[in-house]
């Protein structure tokens, strides 16, 4: 049998090498393909890495974000990293920006017009800002809308920034607002979608 350079390295080392050089989250399938390991062994290696970092008091952590896994510095060390880089924290999101992101999170993919209708105010400028910050992306076209407008959805960077893996990581809409508020949201959503009243608004 031909000997390959990675022969003899433990599974965790192979997985760690891929995560180290990747600038984005890597899915379980991608890790399995790169390391030539079964997904079950990759999952075990990820768990071993996380346990090792925690036990050593390492600056590194394994994060599950954006549908994959990523090596990152411990959030508690952010002040140290920022001082080294000389970077300021990103400006906080405005209330309008949070409303737009919430619309896309719970109702998306949606068009700009649908976001504006749900919020009750023109949201084009806020949407443009969220696209520029990389938190929203165009994910297709609304074939039923006039002119087939672009559909907006959350980006991979959104899930990375929020430290979450998917919409399922967020609480359901009905757990956040009262029944009266939810009814008003439902009416606006159904009107924006051109649907009939009486259908529930689903959470992520």
Automatic annotation (TrEMBL):
<keyword id="KW-0963">Cytoplasm</keyword>
<dbReference type="GO" id="GO:0051304">
    <property type="term" value="P:chromosome separation"/>
</dbReference>
<keyword id="KW-0132">Cell division</keyword>
<dbReference type="InterPro" id="IPR036390">
    <property type="entry name" value="WH_DNA-bd_sf"/>
</dbReference>
<keyword id="KW-0159">Chromosome partition</keyword>
<protein>
    <submittedName>
        <fullName>Putative transcriptional regulator containing the HTH domain</fullName>
    </submittedName>
</protein>
<dbReference type="InterPro" id="IPR036388">
    <property type="entry name" value="WH-like_DNA-bd_sf"/>
</dbReference>
<keyword id="KW-0131">Cell cycle</keyword>
<dbReference type="Pfam" id="PF04079">
    <property type="entry name" value="SMC_ScpB"/>
</dbReference>
<dbReference type="InterPro" id="IPR005234">
    <property type="entry name" value="ScpB_csome_segregation"/>
</dbReference>
<dbReference type="GO" id="GO:0051301">
    <property type="term" value="P:cell division"/>
</dbReference>
């Amino acid at each position: 049998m031909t000997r390959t350079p990675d022969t003899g390295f433990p599974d965790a080392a192979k997985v760690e090498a891929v995560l180290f050089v990747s600038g984005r989250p890597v899915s379980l399938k991608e890790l399995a393909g790169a390391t030539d390991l079964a997904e079950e062994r990759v999952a075990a290696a990820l768990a071993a890495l996380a346990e090792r970092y925690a036990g050593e008091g390492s600056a590194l952590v394994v994060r599950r974000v954006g549908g994959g896994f990523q090596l990152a510095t411990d959030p508690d060390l952010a002040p140290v990293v920022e001082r080294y880089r000389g970077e300021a924290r990103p400006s906080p999101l405005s209330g309008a920006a949070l409303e737009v992101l919430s619309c896309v999170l719970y109702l998306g993919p949606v068009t700009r017009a649908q976001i504006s209708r749900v919020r009750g105010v023109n949201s084009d400028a806020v949407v443009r800002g969220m696209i520029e910050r990389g938190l929203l992306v165009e994910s297709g076209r609304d074939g039923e809308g006039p002119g087939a407008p672009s559909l907006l959805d959350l980006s991979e960077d959104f899930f990375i920034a929020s430290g979450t893996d998917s919409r399922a990581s967020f609480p359901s809409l009905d757990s956040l607002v009262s029944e009266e508020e939810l009814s008003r949201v439902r009416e606006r959503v159904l009107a924006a979608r051109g649907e009939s009243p009486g259908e529930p608004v689903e959470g992520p």
